[in-house]
Design a protein that fits this description.
By secondary structure, the protein is α+β, with helices and mostly antiparallel strands. The chain has two helices and four strands. The longest helix has 18 residues, at 44-61. The structure holds zinc ion.
């Protein structure tokens, strides 16, 4: 029962992170996502991946625009 998951962003294997839309994100990348705005992310590839995840999240949440 000690299954390791592969981080969607950095491809590290561990099981201490979170799963968003079936994408596993390790703790380190989760913190980085919270801490860093898209524009400040160092790696274009990572930015694109995170963007894809949030796109899926907002589709699921059904955002209500309040102006
Ligand atoms: Zn990671």
């Amino acid at each position: 029962m000690d299954e390791k998951l592969t981080c969607y962003i950095c491809n590290k294997e561990n099981n201490k992170g979170i799963v968003i839309l079936n994408r596993y994100i390790c703790r380190g990348c989760e913190l980085e996502m919270m801490d860093t705005s898209y524009n400040e992310l160092k790696f274009e590839g990572i930015r694109r991946k995170i963007k894809n995840i949030w796109k899926g999240v907002s589709l699921n949440i059904e955002e209500h625009s309040t102006g």
